[in-house]
Amino acid sequence: MDTYDADGVTLERVEEYVWEIPQEGEMNAPARVLASEELLDQIADDKTLQQLKNSTQLPGVQKYAICMPDGHQGYGFPVGGVAGIDAEDGCISPGAVGFDINCGVRMMTTNLTYEDVQGHEEELVESLFANIPSGLGGGGVVESGVETVEEILDRGVEWALDEGYAVEDDLAHCEDEGRRPDADPDAVSQKSKDRGKNQIGSLGSGNHFLEVQRVTDVFREGVADSYGLSEDQIVVLIHCGSRGLGHQVCTEYTREVEQAHPELLEQLPDKELAAAPAGSQLAEEYYGAMCAAINYAWVNRQLIMHRTRKVFERVFDRSWEEMEMDLLYDVAHNIAKKEAHEVDGEERELYVHRKGATRAFPAGREEVPSAYRDVGQPVIIPGSMGAGSYVLRGGESSMETTFGSTAHGAGRTMSRTQAKDEFWGEDIQDDLREQKVYVKAQSGATVAEEAPGVYKDVDEVVRVSDELGIGDTVARTFPVCNIKG
């Protein structure tokens, strides 16, 4: 098959797993979908392709807009979308970052084996659920005043270190060492700060979770050794973001951009792509507010990890240090960052928008923590409760192919409403228990929304990433127990 037609969009095969929507009309660049035919059939089943094509009309898009193998329809800009936009002559779009700013994942390793955990699963899942706040609304590990929120927005995980919720190694193994220096707490509204002050250290709801996993497969032993991973090892995966604070930042700035730059809005095919011109006051304010929300999200995951360490100490009656519960890596997948990339033979500063896409820098990049610089940046790809998750490393082809990015998960194939119509939460929990996966959630509806059947095949998503050389498979994990909002 050399062409693919769907939703009024025609794609042309460029090479294996690379499909292009040629530049035409108002498009400022072509668009590319990275997928096998199996995944492309699922991606084409909603408005993803049209949203991707629409995104190429954002001013300053360089090379091409990209959809990852796990892509699906989002708010204006597709989930799984990546766009490198000129930071001088282009724009920045809140909708192309997403409402949950710095939604991301962190993985913690341990020296426990699956055998050590067997027999403790129910105690562990109950204790984690009781001690880690989840669900809609307030409640966090720390409930504070606005002054503390402002310090978190400014300093990120450095604040957690000073307050005793982190150790130095946690910062060293976090993207940007857990702090965006461009953060501007003054650009974050009082309403956003008020929403954030009672949610610091909470999972939230939706697809956010904490999962205890066992490593089932190692594919690149040398890299796995560098990451501290081995077969049958217990690891912990945390997936959440900036909670109500980040959502409020995106909501407010989207509205402000629409009102302040109507001439740009009129040029775009979808108002949900509303963007502020690079260099404008609003672009700078949004970037500062977004970076502050990024810092908040890193602290949020840090506090959840801190509480997880305490739970493990009680359940297994030894210190977290004895169990070597160390941070492997924390990486964002809803973010826009100023990065230097080569375009047409010269290095340019771009706003790299990653919405449901993970940074995947290869070996040698200075942005990669020194511990991993010789092997490449860890990339964490969550699957579903009934499937494996993956640890990858940034691939050698990622900088040229995807602005240093790869997928962020399995990617949904149906809406939450449809999922609740098709699945019953208690049945899903029973089915998973038969696989020795213990799930605890705020409601059966939450479990139904996140049933394994609502997601793409994560194995296929990761296989395509590996084949393209944008994210190389290192290890695979499988759930032991899972808590969610």
Automatic annotation (TrEMBL):
Catalytic activity annotation: a 3'-end 3'-phospho-ribonucleotide-RNA + a 5'-end dephospho-ribonucleoside-RNA + GTP = a ribonucleotidyl-ribonucleotide-RNA + GMP + diphosphate; a 3'-end 2',3'-cyclophospho-ribonucleotide-RNA + a 5'-end dephospho-ribonucleoside-RNA + GTP + H2O = a ribonucleotidyl-ribonucleotide-RNA + GMP + diphosphate + H(+)
Record's compositionally biased regions (Basic and acidic residues): 174-183
EC number: 6.5.1.-
Molecular-function GO terms, alphabetical: GTP binding; metal ion binding; RNA ligase (ATP) activity; RNA ligase (GTP) activity
Active site per the UniProt annotation: 408
Protein name: tRNA-splicing ligase RtcB
Binding positions for Mn(2+) 2 per the UniProt entry: 239, 333
Record text on cofactor binding: Binds 2 manganese ions per subunit.
Coiled coil: none
